[in-house]
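ugh finaly. both done.
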Amino acid sequence: MRSRRTPTIKLSDRPVVDACGAAALMSYAALAFFSEQLHTAPNLTGFLALMMSASLPLAVVFARFLSRPDEFPVVRLLCWALAFRVSGLWGVPIFEDDWFRYLWDGYRFFETGSPYGFAPMSAFADESIPDKFQRILDQINNPHLPTIYGPTTQYAFLISFATAPASLMPLKILLIAVDLLLIRLLLSTAPAGFVVLYAWCPLVIKEIAFSAHADGLGVCLAFAALLLSRRDQFVTAGICIGLAVGAKVFALLLLPFVLIRAPPSAWFGFAGTLLLLYLPFILQGGSDLSSLMVFAETWEFNAALYALMTLLIDPVIARALLAASLIAALAFYWFVFRHQSAGALPRGDLIFGGLLLVSPVINPWYALWLLPFAAIRPTRWAWTLATTLPLAYITGQNLGGLAGMEPFAQPLWVRPMQFAPVLLALLMDWRAHQRRRK
């Protein structure tokens, strides 16, 4: 029997990786430098050009190592991934105002013991609020609604406030650290040449390092839960998936796969974690559930299949049909997954891709839930989506109210430009799959 050859890294590979890393870093540094201008006076052309210029080095590096993904220099992968994210520390969130709510929630949590059950607009006339938080309060979106963010995320906001009130820097550092941990977990599961797709992905870096979206916290906890379950550490896995659900409800889609072979103690760990997260706030009269219901029932932005269905049927019926379809598809996949080996990971890219397909809202940062799984088994459609989703920022608000457009309205051509390439890539993936089966 032939011995397996230990992968070696050619000296010529390192300059290529470093040259591509340096080129991408220049794009992120430029994005950080111009982010203040982009935030106050949106320039979509410049933003999209910089995002594309950061994507090209990644494409070159991935193409070079596609035939030998185990040979990617891991230390360089991590060093450049860290450098890209550090550049985001000095950038202002671009085309975003969610971060004002993060800072406000941290303040409310620290001052009152709970961020829930209180709409920011109720504090507009409160003169006891410090000036710096009054300025933050004035820029919160949907101020008539209490916060929508889960308790796990709220503790991150609290830690950030306790470190530096009214500053986004501590939260960014925390989320970058969690994202680097996720990259480390991916490296234990997939070849480094595949993990680079996530570690160097411009959408990931923009949404976490620049905009401080906390979805990465939930994703990391959920992915850790899957790995723990694969090692039969079921109770710890239950706790981790409970914390992930406490970060964002999306993690519920992975719950049946995390605890598929788990004993009752793991289910108690999950339920107990959620109870400990929510009960203190519920006893004080609030949680994120009321605002989540409003969001689920009324909000629509950048939708794909849902937008097409509402052209023909009532939106309420469309939501119900799509939700039922997603549940049925997940149930079918779960029954298929039961018969796979105990060490298998579920296709999270398909699970969360299905969620995005039927969702009435597709924000660019929602892709953070599927991209780690797409690094394990790269597909054309997933990484095409990661490339086209920044087009979702082309809205009336970011176009300066062009032609009287509503703030979150989009020109008719935006969604076809996002989703048509993804559909084409999906067809290419299917054809490649069919050829492999022959």
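ok and the 2nd:
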Amino acid sequence: MKQIKDLVSWFHGKEKVLVALSGGVDSALVAYAAQMALGKQAVAVTADYKTLSQEELDSAKKVCQEIGIRHIIIEYSELDNPNFVRNDKNRCFHCRTELAEHLVALSKKEKINLIVDGTNLDDLIEYRPGIIALKKNGVQSPLVESGFTKSDVRYVAKENNISIHDKPSNSCLASRIPWGSTVTAEKLERIEKSEVIIKHLFGVRQVRVRDFGNRASIEVDKNELVFLDDEEKMLILEKYMNELGFENILIDPNGYRPGKLNVITD
């Protein structure tokens, strides 16, 4: 298949590569191609920066085992970064700047000169200051340079038996908190717990719990909204989320779409 050959060939002539792997399908496909091209000279790295959900971390570990690529997990806390915690419209820029610093430090330790990520062409359409931060620090994007859209990624990943080819897109837990509202460990914890129980109770795959203080807005894929009509399960959910500090719980009738919370709170 031409597309996977093009992606694999992108790595030809490279000595070593460090793949920033988040747990999603985009970076998984990049890691797969890097492993095919370079074997043991390809290394995947996942940053556990305390705003990454456990689900994403587990996904990263699983896919690296499947691919057979060496996997390094680095740990630090974004909550120690006041620029990130402030949560202005440049939050993602601060996040990815700090990530890039850790990636560069690891690459030097591993004697690797090339760092890549899973950015695809569709990502360039949206407001993504984090991409700018990574590029400023020398991180390259093989999917962009090889002409991959998101649908291309999913199709090629499926053709090559990558188990998470249809995994819903995700983002760090801080993306559920509106710009201008401080990011705290307590907010991140209750968001993650809420999303886990919603998936467990209703069987939905895509979910975001937006944190507006004492109010939570639940977004699921439009096709999955019908699953939330179960009144008995909703009572269980409301009781659980009330205990977490959410007094009012709303279901967004418009469903989930990326970037919906890119606003400044009053």
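summary for the 2nd one i guess: Residues 91-109 form the longest helix (19 residues).
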